[in-house]
Amino acid sequence: MEIPTVWQALAMPLKTPLRFGLPKGSLEQSTIELLGRAGFKVQTSSRGYKPYINDPDLDGRLVRPQEMSRYVAQGFLDFGITGKDWIQESGHKVEVLCDLAYSKATSLPARWVVAVPENSSMMTIKDLQGKRIATELVQTTKRYLAEHNVTAEIEFSWGATEVKVPELVDAIVDLTETGSSLRANKLRIIDTIIESYPQLIVNTEVFADPEKRKKLENIKLLLIGALNAREKVGLKMNVPKAVLEKLSATLPALRNPTISQLADPNWTAVEIIIDEAVVRDLIPRLKDLGAEGIIEYPLNKVVY
Fold first, then answer.
1. For the whole model, what pTM was predicted?
2. What DSSP string runs through 80-146?
């Protein structure tokens, strides 16, 4: 009888791989990097739409974020990653497993904002009454204006929305992380319609399957762990027992530091997880307090 390997015993593969939709376009690279830190290596080709993922339970597809929730809701995909904005825009029913706090270039949420020419007299959403607005996010924009009792003409934009103001339209609703592109086009933000992070979404029937749901919960755990580790590092050091209490009091650790006895009874090993931003100031202080053999190392995942 063939004895399964440790990996095979742990993996417990599904009978049928889950069809996994990855966002094609601006979020593609940051999503692949996040999956890599979570332990899922993704290989793509310049013209291919079926990336390889180093997990036999996952069958990848690259899909436009705008279409992701539709394909998940209809069962063409079992689960996927797409923005909260496009889920809300499409109106399709899917299960949202979790928010994933990352964007194209930063960890800030992307924002759909109302922007007008910087020299415009329009200052609030009410000033859009009777105006013409261009956006990709048509349905969400209509709902937002209706909530504020504003009637305006909204047209779908296929892209390059910033350049349509003021010659073609009076205002735009466009996606931004930092606002730099809008400022470069001499536009001014007057309101935010929605803030959006990517979300891990699941087909409702797949979500109801206990075996598949467990696999998806594991993926969620690893993705969130990778996000938690993004701006943190680990520190190891050897510390004389005589200064251990004083040194421990200076450590901004995620939890209390891990302290282990070394072979020399006068020394201990200390290990902590901290924000990377404080390391450059902390290491010289630790050295001054008597720590030796200080090692900084990167983290892929932090699971709380």
1. 0.86
2. EEEEHHHHHHH----EEEEE----SSSSSPEEEEEEEETT-S--SGGGGTT-EEEES-HHHHHHHHH
